[in-house]
Amino acid sequence: MTAQQEQRVALVTGGTSGIGLAIAGRFQADGMRVAVLDLDRPHAREVAGQRGFTFIPADLARREDCRRAVEETVSALGGLDVLVNNAGFQHIDPIKEFPEDTWDTMLHVMLTAPFLLIKYAWPHLTRGGQGRVINIASIHGHVASPFKSAYISAKHGLIGLTRTAALEAGEQGLTVNAICPGYVRTPLVEGQIADQARTRGLSEAEVEQKVMLEPAAIKKLLNPEDVAALASYVASPAAWGMTGAVLDLDLGWTAR
Ligand SMILES: NC(=O)c1ccc[n+]([C@@H]2O[C@H](COP(=O)([O-])OP(=O)(O)OC[C@H]3O[C@@H](n4cnc5c(N)ncnc54)[C@H](O)[C@@H]3O)[C@@H](O)[C@H]2O)c1
């Protein structure tokens, strides 16, 4: 851990559950001061409090919350050096039945909000010459699956945003990268496994092995800490030369 890392401030969206929580914990262990943004729910406040994170209640479907979240982070922790756009959720339906308002919300939370947070945080992220934006995309930023149109559109878009922001930020020492995980054992995925087991009449273990991991070379779900370890490297000063990168951590899913 370097002295510079000790003083850095990170904001992790969706930081009270799953991948976001693991990244927040890892950054804290790396010596950063960490704010977690999440929906204003008692459980989220409790998790943040127990772990010693600054809690920023916000709904990323609301534009004004994105601006306020940056302002509150800077006023609570004195700056903002590392932004992790991680919050997200899934909705599964064929396009012809996909609820239009759900589409709008998903695109806002997973694509528009990362754009707004980058835009509002830009002056802070570029201040110290070692700023970092890490966008948590997905294998579904590269490839599609049926019934996830909004999710896949948002994740493909997030990769485009990553590359564009990287080109605009390079002169200011700010790097912008995307991490594309395969399936990670989190509440989001455990919900999907349970749903698919019900609808397909399979056991949860069969859904994991035969449905979810079928295209993967390594037939094992990732853990949130695996993603956090990669995020820790990307956030570190050592990764200064990596920008606009789309980093697959996908069990070999997209190798074929
Ligand atoms: N779990 C996986 O297999 C996997 C794989 C690839 C990518 N991802 C991506 O990783 C990210 C985290 O997923 P996870 O599996 O940890 O999910 P999770 O459900 O455990 O956590 C997501 C967090 O986002 C928050 N969130 C949702 N909507 C929000 C909103 N409107 N405003 C503020 N916060 C909101 C939730 O409250 C929750 O805390 C997501 O972007 C997801 O698409 C997950």
From TrEMBL:
InterPro entries noted in UniProt: 3-OHbutyrate_DH, NAD(P)-bd_dom_sf, SDR, SDR_fam
SUPFAM superfamilies: NAD(P)-binding Rossmann-fold domains
Source species, domain of life: Bacteria
Pfam families given in the database record: adh_short_C2 (PF13561)
Annotated NCBIfam families: PHB_DH, PRK12429.1
Family: Belongs to the short-chain dehydrogenases/reductases (SDR) family.
Protein name: D-beta-hydroxybutyrate dehydrogenase
Protein source organism: Deinococcus carri
Organism placement in taxonomy: Bacteria, Thermotogati, Deinococcota, Deinococci, Deinococcales
Gene: bdhA
